[in-house]
Amino acid sequence: MRMFWVIYAGPRTARVTEVLRSHGAPGYTEFPHAHGAGVHGRIEGTRAWPGEETVVTAVVHDDHTQQVADGLIALQDHLEPGERMHFAVLPVEQFR
């Protein structure tokens, strides 16, 4: 099994969750109002560093991993100006 860790900045998080569900993820967990820093600078929800991100995680069976990754890559290729998305795929040793 694999865990997808998706970091999305933009107004339409539903696009991310729809890709996950339509490409083989049986479910997901969403963490809204995330703050952090990265290659595009700080995002802290303040006047100095405005904005927020949403983190979405999903555990996927190995046989759906590439399908989900391909769906997220396609979404990345079609983001609107001002939207950003990054994702990581991590191994899962046990999921119960």
Write a concise synopsis of the structure shown.
It contains 2 helices and 6 strands; from the N terminus they run E-H-E-E-E-E-H-E.
Describe, in plain words, how this protein is organized in 3D.
The termini are close together. Strands 2-5-1-6 form a 4-stranded antiparallel sheet, with helices on one face. A two-stranded antiparallel sheet has the order 3-4. It has one domain (2-91): Alpha-Beta Plaits, CATH 3.30.70.120. The protein has helices at 13-22, 65-77, and strands at 2-9, 29-34, 36-38, 41-43, 53-60, 84-91. The protein is globular. Helices cover 24% and strands 38% of the residues. The chain is α+β, with helices and mostly antiparallel strands and 96 residues long. It has 2 helices and 6 strands; from the N terminus they run βαββββαβ. β3 (36-38) and β4 (41-43) form a beta hairpin. α1 (13-22) packs antiparallel against α2 (65-77).
Termini distance? 11 Å
The count of domains is 1
List how many beta strands DSSP finds: 6
Biggest β-sheet: strands ordered side by side in the sheet: 2-5-1-6
- The total of helices stands at 2
Question: Hey, roughly how much beta strand do the residues contain?
Answer: 35-45%
CATH architecture, please? Answer: 2-Layer Sandwich
Structural class: alpha+beta
Helix/strand layout:
Elements: E1 2-9, H1 13-22, E2 29-34, E3 36-38, E4 41-43, E5 53-60, H2 65-77, E6 84-91
Antiparallel strand pairs: 1-5, 1-6, 2-5, 3-4
Helix pairs in contact: 1-2
Features:
4-stranded antiparallel sheet, alpha+beta, 96 residues, two-stranded antiparallel sheet, Alpha-Beta Plaits
